[in-house]
Design goal:
Blueprint (H helix, E strand, L loop, with lengths): L13 E8 L1 H5 L1 H13 L4 E6 L26 H8 L3 E5 L12 H20 L3 E5 L31 H12 L8 E3 L2 H14 L13 H16 L17 H21 L12 H19 L2 H4 L3 E5 L2 E8 L2 E7 L9 E4 L8 H8 L3 E5 L8 H17 L6 E6 L2 H11 L4 E7 L19 H10 L7 H4 L8 H6 L4 E6 L11 H10 L4 E6 L13 H10 L1
Helix pairs in contact: 2-7, 2-8, 8-9, 12-13
């Protein structure tokens, strides 16, 4: 499936996004997190997020006998919701209630499937794009709403669920992920949340994920991050402090207040069959108050402490600064004492992976920098964002005007393309098992198998590339060797001769040949019998020697 984000991963100037779902959506913390992100870091992009989640709701129309009232069904209100909100995109998340907390049943599963597909059809008929999210997992270990029941019982409910209800939700989630020909985008939160819980429980054995049905704040942040990644190609790994300490941020407190105000008003304006009605202002009045709160939020976002969201910490005994720049994560690690000229290395991708040379240079007085532009494949938009980053860090932290760029694997696309476009900003390139021909990877046009999902992303950020040689021409580093050679930049490549994903015969070797023919300075270190991993050299002296020779 083609991603929703387009060429250069440009964020849309304006979008109205409606969220439909059960109590997890109704509670809406993940929507507030998304709203906070845009209002703090992307103020020029007008994102209107409308929470129309309703507690207890289903897509299937099913309800367990023990439920205190018939569960609402989204189809009771979907037509009016679409007519009133007029969305561009609709995010749909159902499933937790659709199995009605019973063991698996093909009839119940079929009702869920039919209900969800019917919703997709109606949303598309209204002219909106459909984003389907998998249901989150059920966590029996954190369940606090009653008692868990084994199989074979006459009845189950949300307060007495089937102990292995997670197995049911896993089936539902896996099915949602097959709908790539039906939906405009799919967002997997089920398995990523399970992986997060597993990781957390390795650190804290009795980690509580929520109440078993509703995820905690960290779970909501995972959902928000997944949506930002799929819808906008914004990759975030740092969790804002307000996720765990919402009251510590006046900005997020105002975002939450605005979200609750508007969510309640929209939900009651559209109407629903849940007998528990929210206290809500008339929609027109709520929208007016929401604008006042938005102005407050924007003024808070302009405060110095919120502008770049800079945070200092200790990392492996060194000072580290994390910050946000134009909505993307950046970081600098400082040496204990700078070498002359305040030199720095710049990891284009995969910060701290196989960082033998990085750490050695850090010890010698070099800073390490990173700017998270993941899954942009070195496209022109990524290159321009990189230029903004270099301008910022060299000014804000008084680093050397030229950098040494490290391009590992697909990071080779970023490093090469940046150096080719801005040769006067780069002293040297160190490429490690690099992608130098997108026909090889992710295209899979040669000996390499490529990557189907990555190829779709790559096509999107480069502007819907067709699978033809002519359309790829000029986009891959191998087609731009002359540009790099004209800049006179020394290049070091370390690669294994048994690399299957990125064969050196399709990437490193043809590049080396052409660069030498053009008079470029290049050294290639081939690791006999080594595949794509491990990168770099555990004893990085040859890498350091090359860098020191030209820096």
């Amino acid at each position: 499936m083609k991603p929703l984000f387009g060429k250069d991963s440009a964020i849309p100037d304006k979008k109205k996004i409606v969220f439909l779902g059960d109590s997890i959506t109704d509670e809406g913390t993940f929507i507030a997190f998304m709203d906070a992100y845009f209002l703090q870091h992307m103020q020029a992009n007008q994102m209107t997020l409308i929470n129309l989640g309703v507690s207890s709701e289903t897509a299937s129309g099913l309800s367990e006998p023990e439920h205190p009232f018939p569960r609402p069904c989204v189809h009771d209100r979907l037509g009016k919701a679409l007519a009133e909100s007029k969305p561009d995109w609709v995010v749909v998340c159902y499933g937790m209630n659709d199995g009605i907390y019973y063991p698996y049943s093909s009839d119940r599963f079929q009702a869920y499937q039919q209900g969800l597909l019917r919703a997709v059809t109606q949303i598309k008929a209204a002219g909106a794009k459909v984003i389907l999210m998998t249901p989150p997992p059920f966590d029996a270990a954190s369940f606090t709403g009653g008692s868990l029941l084994p199989s074979g019982q006459p009845a189950y409910s949300y307060s007495q669920p089937f102990a292995d209800y997670e197995d049911v939700l896993k089936r539902y989630a896996d099915w949602v992920l097959t709908l790539d020909d039906v939906a405009d985008a799919l967002v997997s939160i089920h398995d990523p949340m399970l992986r997060m819980w597993e990781h957390k429980r390795k650190e804290t054995h009795n980690y509580i994920t929520g109440d078993g049905i509703h995820p905690n704040a960290e779970g909501h942040w995972l959902i928000a991050a997944a949506l930002l990644r799929v819808l906008f190609n914004i990759s975030l790994e740092q969790m804002p402090e307000y996720v765990l300490q919402p009251d510590s941020s006046s900005l997020f407190s105002a975002v939450q207040q605005r979200h609750r105000l508007l969510s309640s008003a929209w939900k009651e304006h559209v109407g629903h069959t849940n007998p528990n009605k929210a206290e809500a202002l008339p929609l027109e009045l709520a929208l007016k108050e929401g604008e006042s709160l938005k102005n407050l939020i924007l003024s808070l976002a302009d405060r110095p402490e919120n502008k770049n969201n800079s945070r200092a910490s200790s990392w492996k005994g060194y000072e580290r600064i994390d910050f946000m720049l134009e909505g993307r994560e950046g970081l600098i690690v400082f040496p204990k004492a700078f070498a002359e000229g305040r030199p720095w290395i710049w990891r284009a991708e995969f910060f701290d992976a196989f960082s033998y040379a990085d750490m050695a240079l850090l010890e010698q007085g070099w800073a390490i920098a990173y700017y998270r532009l993941s899954d942009m494949y070195g496209c022109p938009g990524a290159v321009e964002r990189m230029r903004t980053f270099q301008t910022y860090v060299t000014g804000a932290y008084e680093l050397a005007p030229k950098t040494v760029l490290f391009g590992f694997s697909r990071g080779g696309l970023y490093a090469f393309n940046y150096a080719a476009k801005y040769p006067d900003q780069v002293k040297l390139l160190y490429l490690d098992a690099p992608v130098l021909d997108m026909r090889s990877w992710p295209g899979g046009k040669g000996a390499a198998s490529g990557g189907a999902a990555e190829w779709e992303e790559c096509q999107a950020v480069y502007g819907e590339l067709e699978e033809t040689e002519s359309s790829l021409k000029g986009c891959s580093p191998l087609d731009r060797v002359e540009e790099l050679a004209a800049g006179g930049i020394p290049v070091l490549i370390v690669a294994g001769d048994a690399d299957i994903p990125l064969p050196i015969e399709e990437n490193t070797l043809p590049f080396e040949k052409r660069y030498r023919e053009l008079g470029g300075t290049i050294k290639v270190i081939v690791k006999p019998g080594v595949g794509h991993h491990p990168h770099s050299l555990e004893q990085p002296e040859p890498i350091l020697s090359f860098i020191q020779q030209y820096c």
